[in-house]
Amino acid sequence: MAMDVVDYKVYGSEMQFVEIELDPTEAAVGEAGSMFYMEDGIKMETIFGDGSAQQSGFFGKVLGAGKRLLTGESLFTTMYTNNGSVKRKVAFGAPYPGKIIPVDLSKIGGTYICQKDAFLCAAKGVSLGIAFQKKLGVGFFGGEGFIMQKLDGDGMAFLHAGGTMHQRNLAPGEVLRVDTGCLVGLQPSVDYDIEFVGGIKTALFGGEGLFFATLRGPGAVMLQSLPFSRLASRIFAAAPRSMGGGGGGREEGSVLGGLGSIIGGRNDD
Amino acid sequence: MNGLLFGPGLAENGMPAQFEVNSDGLRFATSSLEVGHPSWRDIRIQKSGWDGSQLRLEWHGSAGAYALVVAEAAAVKSILAAGKLSISRAPGAAQTRAWASGIVVFTFVVPLLVIAAILWQHETIAGWLVGFISVEQEQKLGAHLFEGQKAKLKKIDGAPATMVRDIGARLTKGSAYRYEFYVSDDKTVNAYAMPGGYIVMHSGLLQLAASADEVAGVLAHEVAHVEKRHSLTAIARQLGLTAVLSLAFGDLGSIASAAGDLLSLKFSRDHEREADSVGLNRLVVAGMQPTAMATFFRKMAAQDKINLGFLSTHPSSEERFSAIDGAIGALPAAARGVPALDYDYAAIKAELPQDGATR
């Protein structure tokens, strides 16, 4: 697959954007609506489906678009091509507070599985697909649902998630237990499972929900410290009732927060 | 075949490696000597990967622990053919499984079972709930409901109303309820009872009746509905069903309530049968002719084809009539041979509004 080598720079600290430098004829794909600015000479073209031009025929395109619909992204992606004769820049902004992390697919085996909505932009040649979680328990309680996004190719991809992002490389057999919902992405070689927190008291009052996500190496995992849904529920809980908010603040994971918070740890996915 | 090789001295995120599978073990195309040529005896094969669809081969080489992760379906197949899959469960996996399946059952299966149980046993449940309502509360509810109905009622006074009130008073002597009887100007052959003892007779029904005893039969039937709290049970059942249906169908609340309304249209057959037998007893106790009740219900069944009224909500069937006949037959001869009520029914009928008497 033809890949485009891109130079990039990430700006900002908590609300970031990434600026990508495109050589003449080079292209980048962005999630629709994420473009922040682009210099003169860059042509923006919206394509049905994803950016990997190899999808042949109408049905291939429809299939690609349908997959994107399943992962909760828009049907269209936008391709930014430098039609000029000198280097030009295009920038993509993060949709909410968090970090933008570059992932070099060529260095991690060519495939990366990530959270729905985590994709921000990529060099042209990275194809976006969906990956189904086949383990029922993980799909229900793993925090990421049954559908995740798959990035294939050997170029750069930029992911975005809330809070602070943390990449860890797990050695063979190394185990990391993670709060459900905090997994942004992982190399497919990593075992991803759920584990009961242990003990009724911990399960009900420990505030972490009933299950951990268990990650077992080898491979790279990317974690986020604050899933956006958690931030949103905190903001909602703090918003005045008169404005449709939840009224006074509620402790995270408290029993008084309802059964949902006991099972899910917090009211997020 | 291709896989990702992890181990000491290799890239942290794995090194793409080409390998061959033979009967002895693995043979790598790369000339990295530390990896060696692991044999099947030393290799542990496990299902792995983020979705459990890959294989992880682990062994100890000269430099330390190695792991090869294989994703290609063809390679997975040939490795499984050559080596043996070792199944190992993580500690606490059984507990995790138990809790996970417990939650799934709790969130999906239990509500379904509850809904099924309620739909199946709603009558019993409604009856049980009604037991907690006192007569005063029922009377209050009835008064409230009747208040709304009263506005639509074209009340008729005079001899017919007096007769209905008198017979009603005789039938309900000693009851805990304070009964109110009304005659309404409505040509449909119908009569109904509301909770708390509000009983309304349509003029059409009085028109169809041939004697005061026939009217008394219908009244006894309606009084029995009140005494046995059938309408209260029906209301409880309908409210419960509506709640359950809207629970089951979520946002389709309108459909649920419409369905609930349809179901509430009638008393159940059991209630009707009970009202028949209890009404019959009341007639006997009050010293009225029990046979007139059966005669009049038969007459209404014949009318049913023409006039949708009383019987559209009262399931008529030969079985029901024969049950009444049987009950009458079982009465002592003295109870059957009671003289007719002393009313000039033809004169009373003449007082009814004539425009309603076209049939």
Describe the structure.
The complex is a heterodimer of chains A (269) and B (359). With 269 residues, chain A is an alpha+beta fold. Chain A has helices spanning 57-70, 136-141, 200-205, 228-238, 259-264; strands at 7-11, 17-22, 27-31, 35-38, 42-48, 76-82, 88-93, 98-104, 111-114, 119-123, 127-132, 147-152, 156-162, 165-170, 175-179, 183-186, 191-196, 211-216, 219-224. Chain A has two domains: 7-226, 4-Layer Sandwich (Double-stranded beta-helix), CATH 3.60.160.10; 229-263, no CATH class. Chain A has a six-stranded antiparallel β-sheet. A six-stranded antiparallel β-sheet of chain A has the order 11-12-9-16-19-14, with helices on one face. In chain A, strand 1 and strand 2 form a beta hairpin. Chain B has 359 residues and is an alpha+beta fold. Chain B folds into two domains: 2-82; 128-356, no CATH class. The termini of chain B are far apart. The model of chain B has no long low-confidence stretch (mean pLDDT 81).
Give the helix/strand layout.
The complex is a heterodimer of chains A (269) and B (359).
Chain A: E1 7-11, E2 17-22, E3 27-31, E4 35-38, E5 42-48, H1 57-70, E6 76-82, E7 88-93, E8 98-104, E9 111-114, E10 119-123, E11 127-132, H2 136-141, E12 147-152, E13 156-162, E14 165-170, E15 175-179, E16 183-186, E17 191-196, H3 200-205, E18 211-216, E19 219-224, H4 228-238, H5 259-264
Antiparallel strand pairs in A: 1-2, 2-7, 3-6, 3-10, 4-7, 5-6, 8-13, 9-12, 9-16, 10-13, 11-12, 14-19, 15-18, 16-19, 17-18
Chain B: E1 2-6, E2 15-21, E3 26-28, E4 44-48, E5 54-60, E6 65-70, H1 73-82, H2 93-130, H3 135-150, H4 159-171, E7 180-184, E8 191-194, E9 198-202, H5 203-208, H6 212-227, H7 230-249, H8 253-264, H9 269-285, H10 291-303, H11 318-329, H12 333-336, H13 345-350
Parallel strand pairs in B: 7-9
Antiparallel strand pairs in B: 1-2, 1-6, 2-3, 4-5, 5-6, 8-9
List keywords for this structure.
heterodimer; A: 269 residues; alpha+beta; Double-stranded beta-helix; 6-stranded antiparallel β-sheet; globular; disordered C terminus; B: 359 residues; 2 domains; 3-stranded mixed β-sheet; 13 helices
